[in-house]
Amino acid sequence: MQMASLQGDFILPALKPPPGVTSHFVITGNPTKTAPILVAICVPIVTAFVWARMYTKIRVVKSHGWDD
User: Fold this and answer.
1) Around Cβ 57, how many Cβ atoms within 10 Å?
2) Burial class of residue 52, CB neighbours in 10 A (0-12, 13-18, 19+)
């Protein structure tokens, strides 16, 4: 059985929706476009924080160890 045919069978709500509201399980957006953009934004930010921590521990505090 293909995975595409199974996806709709396993999406069930935890509870019934409130009166006047219908469940809508359609995924909008395109994760293949969103993921590279998020990676391109987050990786440089995280890298800058890691380098700042390394600089602080080595140059300012002059103490580094296995915990870093």
Assistant:
1) 15
2) exposed
Contact assessment for residue 52 and residue 62, using Cβ atoms and an 8 Å cutoff:
no
Structure tokens at 15: 């509870």
d(CA 4, CA 65): 49
Q: How does pLDDT run along the chain (68 residues), one tens digit per residue?
A: 454 554 555 667 788 888 998 887 777 777 788 899 999 999 999 999 999 999 998 888 887 777 76
Rounded CA gap, 24 and 3, in Å? 20
Distance, in Å, from the CA atom of 25 to the CA atom of 18, rounded to the nearest integer, reads 15
Q: Among 64, 44, 66, 65, which residue's Cα sits nearest to residue 56?
A: 64
